[in-house]
């Protein structure tokens, strides 16, 4: 059994349902410490976070990731128990195999091999681990970054090991993400009898044309790096359950994934204007879960990733900004170059989540090659 497979399996067998770490970080910490990393535990609000660093010189290359996993759903729907790592036909099954215990195992083994081969490497290597990514993500990476910023620790390059590949390992890596903004709309009407509509004010009837406009709006056409912004209605509720009552209130929850063509303020104003135009009596609350970010596409990190993937995998990789948000959004604002590179994302959050055993080893080799390119003196 390869070292990466063994470590990934050990992580999967720890039942780390978000935000529980279940001993995953301790396992990685012990290995890193043996390889010259200094450990700093940074717990916050009951969430376990680890900052482990080897070396004091710039540039600092940081591997970042989360040990928590999403719930399994009905375990009976899995072909093997989700927390018992199971290899079948060259594929490792288990909750977190792809998101992202496979990536954590690969980056840990890559760092171990690199420092073993080059104990006096240039710069520094760090690991930023959290168990609060899949949940609300308020006590994890964002808090560690705050601490580092306060004391002037600068991350120059960050590699987040999230599953970024689409059909073959390394075909895509993320150089940015769209932002995510949720709106909670409440439309106030007047409840009444359906037979006496003149005595009531039906918020469903008032809101329907506004929602039509909301969902048919073309927000932008995307740009060189980002797909178009898109809005989806996620929840809609009105009615008392009876068929003879005009409801007094309607609530709608929508989420917009927006690109760098927008500021949050402009987007909010544009959406509110639609409700104003339709003369709704409404209240609207916003929740911003992440701003869009884009890393420098001409930076040393993006270069190194492309070369490493070509060298190790023979794949011409494509920088992408699609998909959901990740903890990279907390690292990017510090000015760090940050990318996401990891295994295939086809099964993440699903039943029978899995990762190719060979891909685990090949991913470790790619990470190690990136270390070579960024932290070794050119000969
Ligand atoms: Zn993840």
The number of domains: 2
Mean of pLDDT = 96
Shape: elongated
**Low-confidence runs:** none
Tally of helical segments: 9
Q: What is the CATH C level class of the largest domain, in words?
A: Alpha Beta
Instruction: Provide the list of bound ligands, each named once.
Output: zinc ion
Cα-atom radius of gyration? 24 Å
Q: Order of strands in the sheet with the most strands?
A: 1-2-6-3-7-18
Key descriptive features of the protein:
elongated, alpha+beta, 6-stranded mixed sheet, single chain, 4-stranded antiparallel sheet, binds zinc ion, 379 residues
Strand and helix map with partners:
Blueprint: H1 3-12, H2 24-34, E1 38-41, E2 49-54, E3 60-66, E4 86-88, E5 91-93, H3 97-117, E6 124-130, H4 141-150, E7 157-160, E8 172-174, E9 176-177, E10 179-188, E11 192-193, H5 203-216, E12 230-238, E13 245-246, E14 249-258, H6 264-277, E15 282-290, E16 293-294, H7 300-313, E17 318-320, H8 328-331, E18 337-340, E19 354-356, H9 357-375
Parallel strand pairs: 3-6, 3-7, 7-18, 8-17
Antiparallel strand pairs: 1-2, 2-6, 4-5, 5-19, 9-16, 10-14, 10-15, 11-13, 12-14
Helix pairs in contact: 1-3, 3-9, 5-6, 7-9
Residues 66, 99-100, 133, 162 line the site of zinc ion.
Question: Mind explaining what this structure looks like?
Answer:
This protein is α+β, with helices and mostly antiparallel strands. The protein folds into two domains: 3-177 and 292-375, Zn peptidases (Aminopeptidase), CATH 3.40.630.10; 179-290, Alpha-Beta Plaits, CATH 3.30.70.360. The protein is built from nine helices and 19 strands. It has helices spanning 3-12, 24-34, 97-117, 141-150, 203-216, 264-277, 300-313, 328-331, 357-375, and strands spanning 38-41, 49-54, 60-66, 86-88, 91-93, 124-130, 157-160, 172-174, 176-177, 179-188, 192-193, 230-238, 245-246, 249-258, 282-290, 293-294, 318-320, 337-340, 354-356. It is elongated. Residues 66, 99-100, 133, 162 line the site of zinc ion (ZN).
